[in-house]
């Protein structure tokens, strides 16, 4: 059976991916919320690994314990809208950690376990986050786009990398932001688009919706 | 006399800016290297303030002591080419700190001192840094581009923001990278382009070379 790891499995898109992938993959579900991870395991089986992606040692341990991976999906993220002039350093750091530093740690330590793998990371379209209060989030998502492009160069023998760029998604993202937009995509729609892409030749960017 | 602050005044572009601006501005020259700052002061006058931009308290103090600014230029930066799979967290952090987190701290604390000011930040063209080893640098420079775009929205009554996108520049950057490209711009050329732009209507991006 093929092996897949989903980092951020407890989020909206992550959970939808678990549901969609569990029949075809031996799944490792990674997240911070142990209770939610347990619920996922009860519902879908697979293995669960609590991990804070902002802690490099935890990410390192995660991949040391992992079998070779056919599929790695990074759907963790954080958003904390606040004007630059009053953004606490801790808020900036949390958003950068979840959206880009955690991806760096993951790619760094995943490298040895990637074997003709596919890697998907959830990004954000710059034009959809170009608003007051979104400096850290927009900066982090722009950063991860370039990080992934260079990972694709450095690790081209190991994996193919896809940045997923959905429209607004109906997920916990909006808890800190405001009302879910009326035309927001369901997380399952994004999961389906990823799986469809997974069964085709890899693209560097996958726009959804 | 108008007031200008140059963060990263001891670097190639920073020093060229000091030379070019000293006759028209009361200059605050900011950097980490006290010896180099002293040399600049001996040569050009102005005031010098040692500051590590990765330390928010130092950046905060810097702007608390500053008069209202007509011009703020951020030309600090760091590069440390290394493959993702062997990049130490400290290297990633240093590059992110110098190229984007330091800009965040600066904009956050500068905000109260910007008064119809012009703000310039040195960026990098994505296509010029899309190479193996440049993940952190490319990520940081992409991040600062979005940070500046959102600062321009949030602080539009305070300042106009320009991201400077030069071709390769003949500067200390190459000490950690390799041979200076034959067609590299001289720092004074970039400084002249910034000053020319300063005397015209603000643009959000200034390509040089």
Describe, in plain words, how this protein is organized in 3D.
The structure is a homodimer of 209-residue chains. Chain A is α/β, with parallel strands linked by helices and 209 residues long. Chain A has 6 helices and 7 strands; from the N terminus they run βαβαβαβαβαβαβ. In chain A, strand 5, helix 5 and strand 6 form a beta-alpha-beta unit. Chains A and B meet through helix 4 and helix 5 of A and helix 4 and helix 5 of B.
Give a topology summary.
Two copies of one chain form a homodimer.
Chain A: E1 2-7, H1 12-21, E2 25-31, H2 34-44, E3 47-50, H3 56-64, E4 69-74, H4 89-110, E5 114-122, H5 135-154, E6 159-166, H6 187-198, E7 205-208
Parallel strand pairs in A: 1-2, 1-4, 2-3, 4-5, 5-6, 6-7
Q: Could you give a short description of this structure?
A:
The structure is a homodimer of 209-residue chains. Chain A has 209 residues and is of the alpha/beta class. Chain A is 40% helix and 21% strand.
Question: What features would you highlight for this structure?
Answer:
homodimer, 209 residues, alpha/beta, 7-stranded parallel beta sheet, 6 helices, 7 strands, globular
